[in-house]
Amino acid sequence: MSSYKDKKVITIGIVSELTGLSERKIRYYEERKLIYPDRSKGGTRKYSFLDVERLLDIANKMEDGMQTFEIRKMEQKQMKKQEVRERMLRGQLNAAFNIRK
Amino acid sequence: MSSYKDKKVITIGIVSELTGLSERKIRYYEERKLIYPDRSKGGTRKYSFLDVERLLDIANKMEDGMQTFEIRKMEQKQMKKQEVRERMLRGQLNAAFNIRK
DNA sequence: CGTGTAAGGAATTCTGACACG
DNA sequence: CGTGTAAGGAATTCTGACACG
C-alpha cells in the first residue's frame, strides 16, 4: 500500500533542489492548500517523492498562468471524477456478480 | 535505472527514526565503510531508502554479534558472487546467440 | 496574488574528543 | 571495538513582516 514514494522524509532544502522551486514558493503552496507536508517534532517540514511530483505539476500550471485557487479546484474535480469512476466500476461489478456488502 | 529508492535525500535524523539506530551508530558505520551517504554543500549527510535498508541489514548482523569488518567482507563476497553470476550469464548468452561486442 | 528578502530564533547536524570496556 | 555523551560551532529551517505590483 504505502511505498517509498509516499513516505514523508525529505526536508524543504532538498525538495527545493529536486524541483527547482524556491523554499518560499514551496511554503506558499502549502499556505494555499496545494500541498501537505508532515512535520518533525521540532517543526521542520517533511515531504514525500509524491509531494515532489505534485510540486512539479503545480509549477507547470503556474507557468501556464493558472492561479493557486484554480489549481486547487482542478484537483478537487479530478478527485471527484475519480470517485465517480470508482463508484460506477463498483456498481458494475456488483451487478455482474450480484454481490451484496 | 535510478529510482526513488536510490536518491540520496534523507537527513540523518529521519534515517535514525526509520531505522531505530542512533545517529552515532549511523555515522560510525560510515566510518567503517559500510555505508556511503552523499553530502550537501554545507556538509549534512543525505541517505537513500536503499541506505536505510542496508542499515537495517547491518543492524541485524550487529545484533548477531558480527563485527563491522566482517560485515564489510561479507558484502564484498556478495559482490564477487554477483559479478561471477553476471559474467557466466553473459557468457552463456553470447554462446547461445553468438554475439560479439 | 505570488514571490523575494532581511531578521531573529530555534531545530538539526557536524566534528573531535573523552569515557567505558 | 562499538557506542554514549557533552561541547562548540555551523548549516538548515521556521515564522511573521515588509515590499512590489
Question: How widely separated are the two ends of chain A?
Answer: 23 Å
Strand residue percentage of chain A: under 5%
The domain tally of chain A reads: 2
Number of strands of chain A: 2
What is the assembly state of the chains in this entry? Answer: homodimer
| CATH architectural name of the largest domain in chain A | Orthogonal Bundle
Low-pLDDT stretches of chain A are: none
Judged by helices, strands and strand pairing, the structural class of chain A is mainly alpha
CATH topology of the largest domain in chain A: Multidrug-efflux Transporter Regulator, Chain: A, Domain 2
Largest protein-protein interface = A-B, 12 and 12 residues
Query: What is the CATH class of the largest domain in chain A?
Result: Mainly Alpha
- Evaluate the radius of gyration of chain A: 18 Å
Can you count the helices of chain A? Answer: 4
Order of helices and strands of chain A: HHEEHH
How would a crystallographer describe the biggest sheet of chain A? Answer: 2 strands, antiparallel
Q: How do the strands line up in the largest sheet of chain A?
A: 1-2
Percent range of helical residues of chain A: 55-70%
Globally, the shape of chain A reads globular
Look at the structure and give the mean pLDDT of chain A. 93
